[in-house]
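Hi, here's the filled form for the chain we discussed.

Project: internal
Contact: R.S.
Residues: 225
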Amino acid sequence: LASLNLDYVDLATHLVDSVAGSLVPHPESATVIALADHIQMSVKRQGLAAEHTNGGHPLEAEVRNLYTDEYHVAERMLTETNGWLARRHQPPLPHAEVTALALHLVNAAFHTDDLSDTYTMTGLFSQLFDIVDSSLGITMDRTSVNAARFITHMRYFFVRVRNGNQLNEGMSILRESLEQSQPDAVLCASRLANVLELRLDTELTDDERAYLGLHVARLSAEINR
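And the returned structure, exactly as it came back:
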């Protein structure tokens, strides 16, 4: 904090209050400081590393498809930032910064100043969708309504895991119903659960597995309609 130029803190405060809005829950101080630090460092190094500037951020496709709202807001934030820099006769930041800014917005929902959970979650989303595709023999539209529901469910799931508060409400009826009516979805959900347990080093409850099966069934139904 002591190394931050207050001008960047003012800029980050404006971006959070006037641009990000409800995407950044209160309290917002950690997000303001993280954004200010990121932008200050980006200006010092004139944007991301050369390979990211020329080829785009390595997570750009995932962030653009998985976090649509955050990505669009981050585009506006970059426009505001580059206008702010222009008034100070400094070069603009590259478009690849949109992805980095969007990840800070996603991270704000975790109420933490550590981006590691967000990077883990984002990388896992792509792997999970690939498993759904291969298990069910489909090509899932990552921008569909049911995909968005699945992503929302998984974002809350990651928060529950981090807080040690997985669903455990005895939803045996849901699980048994899915096993009878959607056996392929249940098998796919079991594969997803196994990957999640390995990557997150935690054991999923039966309820979490059941809700995974429900969302996979919805994804499958959307393709088969």
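Let me know if anything looks off before we file it.
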